[in-house]
Write a structure and sequence with these properties.
This protein is of the alpha+beta class and 144 residues long. The protein has two helices and five strands. The chain has one domain: STM4215-like (2-Layer Sandwich), CATH 3.30.2000.
Length: 144
Amino acid sequence: MSLEEQKNLAESLRLFFVENLPAELLPVNAGFFSLDGLLENQAAMSLQITGGRTVRRYLDGTRVEEMYFSLFYRDSNANDNEAKSAMLGTLNGIGTWLDQNDPPFLGDGFIITKLEQIQAANVIEQTPQQITYQAGFVLGYETR
């Protein structure tokens, strides 16, 4: 998988989430996918590609690929246990929502074979000022 392909798929996934996630799965106070320049008192979500692999490559040029990505959420409610529980539920809820809906259209030449959560949401960093959560996902697709 080329770097350009990763960038295009990541942007398509980001747009898919922004345009399709139900309101109850979007934290009201979050600037969605805007961790760049994050101020300590802002909430934000981001999508980050964490890896990829070619599963199969055929003589006709078709490839079966998997791309691993994480959704991150950062918030200033670091000491609020109710907020922590709600955010973990929200990130895991995105995985459930993906299971119950059709996969996104990511452009000509891509056939989505799976889009699912593979790592439960958890806290990955906590300071007195902020907390960061992460959930892991996999996108499986074929190229034509």
